[in-house]
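help with this record:
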Amino acid sequence: MKSRDSSCLVFAAICLAAFALCAAGPQLSDSQGLSNHLHTPTGLPDHAILGTNLQTTVLSASRPTIPVILDTDIGTDIDDTWALALLLRSPELDPKLILMETGDATYRARITAKFLAVAGRTDIPIGLGVNSRPMSESLRNQDPWIKDYDLSRYPGEVAADGVGRMIRIIEESPAPVTIIAIAPSPNLAVALARAPGIAARCRLVGMFGSFAVGYSGGPPVSPETNVRVDPAALRAVLAAPWRDVLLTPLDTCNAAVLTGENYHRIWNATGDPTLRAVIENYCIFAPRVNWMNCDYFALRSSTLFDCVAVYLAYSEAFVETETIRFHISNDGYTLRDDHGEFTARAALHWKNLSAFQDHLTARLLRTHQQ
């Protein structure tokens, strides 16, 4: 695949040249036109962490951070990379471990390690998860970004037994741990089989399912990928006695896209190493992804499913949640059923999607700390 990688690196270089020029010149416009102002939502409840200096000061002074573990299949869809950036930019969250899920764990760990190094967060441990399934070249969509990066260069901890490391973190934590699950679930299922008691010490926030909205943005429902890849593993996970289970299904996360002024403020953030790494990876991802045409990368983000799960780990202000019962079919559908085997709180509707998009932009840009 050398020729494909070389072509993608050339394409990414051209993209990044445009990226740099865009920062100095007029902004691009999409088919709907760019908004002239970034509107910051007001009148939010105290628990909606929105990004003003006052709110950040109050938060840091009065609230302890939330210990979190991110379970991710970073390196296939680009939204995991955006989600990792959001995690690092969320002062409410204290990442204790980034755990690689499904496929080639070392490939995913290399992306994570390089990204954390760029972001200056090599204090965060990385865990190699279960290499649960073969991983084709078509799923290694960010491989050129780590072409010359060896995992041994990461100065922080890399745990060969990432599942065991997760178990120890949970068992030793003086506070409940929030697991942010943005991937299929083999790691979590294995962890629960090895240490069933960890569920009672954790809150689970996950990007799973499709209850009324599918990938099309409306009916019919879809077999959502994180469910479809391993339905049995997710059944085992959801059967555990977690302190709380909160899901963002496609009903909400499928609408998480940054466009217009919001997106171009991030595109133009050439001086921010973390956001530059996000855009570099997006430019590499765009021509390689084989399940969609991503020719709009300079105008808007792809769907940022996983950013909603990270957001829900610290706030629910912009969503409406409902406790539902459901079952999981063998082909990956999550079907509502009043007598279903599983119960969870699910973010089924947005209270204010545009406010979330503004919040996500401000959070990534760290404008709430300026």
The chain has one domain: 2-369. Confidence is low (pLDDT under 50) at residues 20-61. The CA atoms of residues 11 and 17 lie 10 Å apart. The beta strands are 66-72, 93-100, 126-127, 158-159, 177-182, 202-206, 244-247, 319-328, 334-336, 342-350.
